[in-house]
Structures are given as C-alpha cells and as structure tokens.
C-alpha cells in the first residue's frame, strides 16, 4: 500500500540559453528509497535545487502531500520547504564549519525545540530541560552514524567522508519526511560506499522516511533502491525498478552505447 | 548540571569581585572623577560593543550604524528625564529608548538585511546618519546644540550593573537556540535556510537585539555625561565601536572586554600628550591590526566551564 | 527652468569632484575589496599640496594640479605598501580598520603639522563669471568639469588600452588566475593605488579652487559621500563611479535649492538605500548568485 508524498509536474529550469532541467515529472511515495542517476551535468543537482526551493522554477508545479492535505511548494522559500518536511545534503559539503558537530545537529533542530527568548536569556529551568532533550536527541542521531567521539570537534576538522555523514545527520535532525542526498558517497571507495548505502537503506526504514539518492554510478544503487530515475541532458531518460532500468533500451544505449 | 552551576557561580563571583574592588577603591578615595569617567566610558563601550559583536561577529552581518541606535537611547533619556527627573523616570526613559530603537531597527533591518557584506555596512551607516540628521533638525531634541543639564541619574554603579546584565543576556542568547541559529546564518546562509532556519528572521533578531543594547548604552551615556549633541553619534562614533569589536577579536566577547579596557586606558594615558595623542592612537591601531590581524584574542573565549572540565575535553 | 539649469551646473561641478574621488574607491575596491577609508584624506593632502605649491613655489594652476597628482600617487603607493599589503590575506574587516587608522593618522598628522584651522586657498586663476540664458557659470566651474571629464577619459583609456589597465581588470575578476598568466599582483595593486590617488589629488586642488577653503578634516565627509557614490554606481565599475558622483552632486545641490539643505545628506543616504534595495549591487554592478 503506497501513498503519494510529493508530485512534481513538468519541471523546467533554464539558465539563460541552457535548459538544465527540461520538462521533468517525478513523484515520490512514502517510505521508499529512490535513486536518481545520470551523467555529469545531467541536471540532477538542479532538480534537487528546484524541489527544495533553492532555485526558482522556470515553470512546472510541485505538490507535497502532508497530513494536513496537499500543499503546493511553488514559490516557497527553502526554509519553508524544509519546515514542511523536506531536507537535503549538498554535493559540495556545506556544513557550519566553525561550529561543533553537536551544534551542527542542534541547529537543524531549531524549529522542533522552542526555547523562548526570555527562557533562554534568563536561563529559566525550562531552558536546561530543552537543551538536555535536544542534546540527547542529537547524540542519538550521531551515534547511528558513529560520530559520538567527534561531537565536540569543529566540523571543519573532520575528514571528508565524515563530513558527508555529518551532513546526513544534520539533514535527519530536521525530522524530514523526504530526504534528498546529493552524491553522499562521493569520494569514497567502493567498500565505504557500500557501507554507507546500506546505512542509508537502514535509516530510511527505521525512520519511515522517503530518501532520494543521487549517484553517478548506477551499479552502486541498483541493489538497494526500489525505483530509479535516469536523467540525461536535463530530460528524463527512463524510470522504473532497477530491473526495468537495466533492460531499458534507451538506458542501455546511453550507458553502454557510448562506452 | 553541576558544572553549569559552578561556572555560573564563578561568573557571579567575578562580577561581585569587580564591583567590590571598584567600590573599595572609590571608598579609599583612589578613584578621582577622571578615573571614574574612564571606568564609566569603558562600561558603556562594553555595552555598545558587545551588542555590535553579536551582530557582526556572531550573526555575520556587517552593521556600521550602531551610533544611530545609541542616539535614540540617549535622546529618549535626555528628553524624558527633564520632566521625570527621578531614577524611575530614568529607567522608564531607558525602556522607551529601547522600544524606539527596536522599532527603528526593524524599519532599517527588514529591507537592508537582504544586502551582503559591505553593502549592508554602507546602508546601515546611511540609516544611522539619517537618524542623526533628523535629531539634528528636530525641535524637541534642541537641534544641533543638543541637550545639556540632563539630570545625573546614572552613577558608575548603574553602568556596572547594566554592563553585567546586558553581557549576561547577550552571552546567554549566544549559547542558546537563537545564538546557534544566528551563527548558522553567519557560517552558511544557504545551508541554514535548507535546514529550516528562517534566515531573515534570525538576522533581524540579532540586529534588533544589538539595537536595544545600544539604546541602553545611549541612555547611560546621556544620564552620566549629562550633555548630548547629534555630533556625538556620527559615523565616527559608530566606527569607534567597530574598532573595539575588531581590536578585541570579531566573535569574542572576552576580546570585546579586553579591547574596551585597553582602548579606555590608552585614551586616558594619552590625554597628557596633547596634539600627538591621536597620532599615537592611530599608529597603535594600525600596528595592532598588522601584527594581530585577528584581533587581540581572535575568537578565543574565556570559559569557566572549560576550566572546570579540563582534562575531560581535549584542547581548544 | 532657469534655477533648474543653474542647479544643474552647480551640481555637475560638485559632482565631478565626487566622481574623481569615487573612482579611487571603486578601483581599489574592485581590486582588493577594501573600502579605503583613507582615500578622502589623500584628497585633503592633494589640496594642501596645491596650497603650498601655489603659495610657496609659485606654481601655476596646471603645474600645481599635475604635481599634486604625482605626489598623491606616490603617497597612495606608500600607504598601500606599508599599511595594506601586510594584511592582504587577513580578514577584510582588519584591513578596513587599518584603513581607518591610516585616515586618523593623516588627519591628525596634518593637524599637528599645519594646525587644525581652515585656511583660504590661493586664487590661482582670476574668477570670471559668464552669463548664459540667465545661468551663471564661473570659469572655475567649467575648469573643474572639463578637467574632471578629461581625467576620467584618460583613466578609461588607461584601463581599456594599456597593459597595466588590462592587468587591473584581470586581477579584479580573478587574482589567482591573473597571477597564473604572469600578472604581477603587487605591481598591479600599486598601480591601482597610484591611479586612484592621483585622481583624488586632482580633486583636492580643484575643490580648493572652488570652495577657497581647506583644512585637515576636509576629506572626511566628501570621502564618505564619494564612497556612497561608488556604491550607487556599482562598486568596481569605473563608469558607475562617475555616474554615482554626478548623481550625488546633483542631488545635493537640488535638495539645497528646494530649501532642505539641512536634510541634504539624509536625502543622499536615503537614495543610496533605495538604490541598493532595487539594485543590490548598484547601478552598474554585477550581482553574482552563489551556485549550490
Ligand atoms: N546556477 C547555475 N547557473 C548556470 N548554469 C547552471 C547553474 N546550475 C547548474 N547549471 C548548469 O546546469 C547543468 C546541470 O547541472 P547540474 O549541476 O544539475 O548537473 P548534475 O547532474 O548534478 O551533474 P554532476 O554529476 O556533475 O553533479 C550544467 O550544465 C550546469 O552547468
Ligand atoms: Mg550534481
């Protein structure tokens, strides 16, 4: 039994003369793991940017299905979209570098723990309670990603791969129902990639969320995702289950024809 | 929790200690009006610079209009205490000044905080100049001549207590949900937005907070110095506060204290040097910046908590 | 109509001074992203050089103008070398505070040296006033306007046509890449300071002639206004700085003419804020969006 989470219809984005995303329609259901693949410059990141409000749409429509009903995301600011339950990571890591790992996570929880101005500046008991609850929740997330030991380090001190994991933790801390991961395994070796992909699969199930994963290499995601979208030159080349994609003539031509 | 309690008590101790020292020296007659003047100036400068450091150092917004908000506080007190010449009247005037400064900060901040870096600096500088020019031309503010014989309703004790209070409130804000949100905006505005932080709102929060504390500084200035004129709140006044922030270290409240004290002392010592005073001052400024580009303390912050948990946490 | 024409003439004369000053701000900002707070004081020094060269050395106007430009160019280069170069890789706010320090130093150094009082600038040229369609134009105003326009044209030529000018543009777009193709960063930055300071020196002599009065703090307010002019025009843009200078000059005289002289600076700042809100990078500036 699936239920729709997000519906994007005929999205178009052009930068001057270049059409980075051309008439792409995608949808995501609750509780699924979807892959988004395509060669360099295919428009994958741009599609994420459109769906998270980072880049304004040239045309198209995006609807989010929430418990309160359908909500259009057109023209909404990134922060509003994040508050509606969509979170993301960035291809070129964008952590709060000078702040501690723990603070990076706590910042993402800002909207879920109301402290109140007077409560915090006068350090009323409620402040300490809220902070303790936040710290606990943050530590639980950090533990899943094996980051407990570095919780007090500034984010900039972490190795590259660890920073990528921290970005996922930070995104999860916003309590999203839909999580976009832009090449989370970039720069990792196949083994680390396999581990990370398994971890992503696991949190997708444990947290009951929908995860959309950008990956260059289709073989890495084939055996974990339920569905795949393939982008090429800004257009949607194919979509379906991994099996269907592997048998799709257009995909075979694009991926194997050129090689 | 235990550590928190201990470190809070330690801070209370420091503040009491400072108070007792000054009080004892005052009692012993070792503080003449000249020195007291210096101490009060340092205190007021700390109030102003801590607020500006919140805006620049923690929220990452380059504001160059702090003196405008200071002027609002100063004139609120200068005008209101002429008819309400009681301590209560003074505090009411201070609150009124803060409220007006907050309103002005919202009016200035909502449109301009969209600007970045130096553009924001120049826009806030312009806004502060507009405030000053309006004061310069109003009847109630007595125009360019300014106000004099303002009732002396603030003593060094008032300044000291308010300096401690505003610092506590500011530091507590920095180490809370709001402070983290504000620092996230400084670190990466785009990522902060993607994490659901309403960046406009938090930038404005820091700006308004800073404006309110600047108004407190202005009120104290008016009630202690007893004479104010629009010229006291010009661009150079904003720059003087900025210098304290940068000299101490952008993003270090401890640094702001150190810089305010160092500059206050330097100023007092140089009083005897006549015309070369400002030359020495400016050379000192240039040299400190060249040899300490991150300010005297960088972003280092003194912390009892770290002291108390030394060993448990690795180096800093 | 008549007063309008008159104010336009006055505004253009004043505007050309701001424009000359704004050029220095915009070039320096374009190349090292520094608000050179001491720039207004270079203009003050230019005026004082003009004063002494006219009085003590009995230079004629042209010699005074040219020598002031050379002297200021050298000063600009020296200041950059000692005060700003060590801070090239420091936070920008540090360099800004240093520039403020240099400004204080020049203002107070000059006050200590020659006294803080205003002095009257020698009349290098006899003033002749022309009447044309009911508008009064003095030869000084024409001289200012023409000199300023010639200098701006010269500057445009240097930037567009010479090797140094090309290097300046390259560095302002991408300093690293410019160095990779063999451009000497230090020379280019020195050259930029020399050019900008020379313009300020010329402006100083011209303002001396126009207002007849100079003092060590005379650079403060025009300096800030000229920076505002550069921002309005789009900081980093040379035509923008000229345009911004004229806009401010005309605005100021216009506001004065309608009897609001007490508010003239407020109007300038208000226009600045409005322009920035509509065009966040000024009139000719480029607004670069961050790529995610
Ligand atoms: N802000 C922008 N301005 C102009 N062009 C852009 C912008 N963002 C993306 N593009 C262009 O749009 C196209 C798609 O880029 P995008 O980053 O979405 O590709 P991608 O599929 O994520 O590629 P990669 O695998 O390299 O990350 C590219 O040609 C890119 O140059
Ligand atoms: Mg990409």
From TrEMBL, chain A:
Q: Which CDD domains match?
A: ABC_Mj1267_LivG_branched
The ABC transporter domain sits at 6-258
Q: Which InterPro entries match?
A: AAA+_ATPase, ABC_AA/LPS_Transport, ABC_transporter-like_ATP-bd, BCA_ABC_TP_C, P-loop_NTPase
Sorted alphabetically, which keywords does the UniProt record give? ATP-binding, Nucleotide-binding, Transport
UniProt-listed Gene3D superfamilies: P-loop containing nucleotide triphosphate hydrolases
Q: What GO molecular functions are on record for this protein?
A: ATP binding
Superkingdom of the organism of origin: Bacteria
Could you tell me what this protein is called?
ABC transporter ATP-binding protein
The organism is Lactiplantibacillus modestisalitolerans
From TrEMBL, chain C:
Record's bilayer topology term: Multi-pass membrane protein
Q: Which segments cross the bilayer?
A: 12-37, 57-83, 95-118, 138-159, 189-211, 226-254, 266-285
UniProt-listed InterPro entries: ABC_transp_permease, BCAA_transport_permease
Q: Which organism is it from?
A: Lactiplantibacillus modestisalitolerans
- List where in the cell it is found: Cell membrane
Q: Which family does it belong to?
A: Belongs to the binding-protein-dependent transport system permease family. LivHM subfamily.
Give the signal peptide, or none.
Answer: none
**What keywords are assigned to this protein?**
Amino-acid transport, Cell inner membrane, Cell membrane, Membrane, Transmembrane, Transmembrane helix, Transport
Q: What is this protein called?
A: Branched-chain amino acid ABC transporter permease
Record PANTHER family: BRANCHED-CHAIN AMINO ACID TRANSPORT SYSTEM PERMEASE PROTEIN LIVH, HIGH-AFFINITY BRANCHED-CHAIN AMINO ACID TRANSPORT SYSTEM PERMEASE PROTEIN LIVH
Q: Please verify whether the record's keywords include Cell membrane.
A: yes
